Amino acid sequence: MYLLIVNPQAGNGRADRLFESIQRDPLFKEKNCRTFRTAYKGHAEKLAEQIAEIHHEHVQCIIVVGGDGTLHEVVNGLRHYPAIPVALIPTGSGNDFSRGIKSKLKGVRLFRKIVQNPKRLSVHIGNYVTNGRYKHGNRLFVNSVGFGLDGALVELANKHQFRKWIKRLHLHPYIYPIALLPVLRTFEPINIEIYIDGNKEETERATLVAVTNHAYYGGGMKIAPQANIKKKRFSVTIIDPLPKWKLILFFVTVFLGKHTLLKEVRVMEAETFKITSKQAIPYQVDGQASHCFQSVLSKTEKTRMVYWS
Ligand SMILES: Nc1ncnc2c1ncn2[C@@H]1O[C@H](COP(=O)(O)OP(=O)(O)OP(=O)(O)O)[C@@H](O)[C@H]1O
């Protein structure tokens, strides 16, 4: 049995339209597919949790039709069942996870491949705990956690009014570069302490610190060109304070992964990562924004099974 979790809102309704095509495919019935549609934020996580409890012995794969935000929720809902395979049919606006696992097919063709003959990947994704605790214990992330500038960018980019204008002007693929201009006016580098595998880094201020499972974030920015999702180590990119003109240069070059040529950019690897600050740091996890004073990240002990193509 294959279970589909569909976020009808993802990609401005693209997920819903694609799901209708998937449903018309003969394999949908043949392979005994069932569908659950999300009705609100957080619903995908609850659905995944319930599905796993009831169907864990029979489910062959949970197929997410949505964006990285929906995948994030599903993977968290399945945190006690890492052996249940998950597949993503990307229909969001960013789709960095698919880029990160180098998935080639899309849409109905990807659905057909997943239920017939998928490639299988076992990955150590990330654990994160903010401010020393979380009401549900550790949380998982599939793409990245970014502190500083990208937290502030995601916060603005997720504001209802901002999204509405971007949608109206059909500028969704450029949402982060556009958000950069208003954010830059007031943004100040963050004062932080960083520990990589328990050792303190000599960094007191930074514009941005990104901890990633694979190379991509922010809708195709190649923030960590050398990162590989198969490794049991994160890629950590630290960007020292930069003049504003150089920050714009950073955002131009990061799409090609050439930002690492800037002397203010350092890339390293870590199995565990800790960041603390006396000020509230803006941060984003898989495209959702918040603030924290401390965050501890580690790779998951158990691997998660992913189906892809
Ligand atoms: N029915 C719903 N109504 C409103 N929000 C929803 C609904 N279902 C899920 N969500 C929320 O929508 C958010 C964004 O979804 P998702 O990431 O899948 O799409 P996206 O934002 O278009 O894509 P991407 O993350 O790749 O940019 C998720 O965090 C999820 O909690």
From TrEMBL:
Keywords tagged on the record: ATP-binding, Kinase, Lipid biosynthesis, Lipid metabolism, Nucleotide-binding, Phospholipid biosynthesis, Phospholipid metabolism, Transferase
Protein name: Diacylglycerol kinase family lipid kinase
UniProt-listed Pfam families: DAGK_cat, YegS_C
Single GO biological process annotation from the record: phospholipid biosynthetic process
Signal sequence segment: none
Domain DAGKc stretches: 1-99
Family to which the UniProt record says this protein belongs: Belongs to the diacylglycerol/lipid kinase family.
Annotated SMART domains: DAGKc
A molecular function (GO) term: kinase activity
Names of required cofactors: Mg(2+)
Source species of the chain: Halobacillus locisalis
Entry-linked InterPro entries: ATP-NAD_kinase_N, Diacylglycerol/lipid_kinase, Diacylglycerol_kinase_cat_dom, Lipid_Phosphate_FormReg, NAD/diacylglycerol_kinase_sf, YegS/DAGK_C
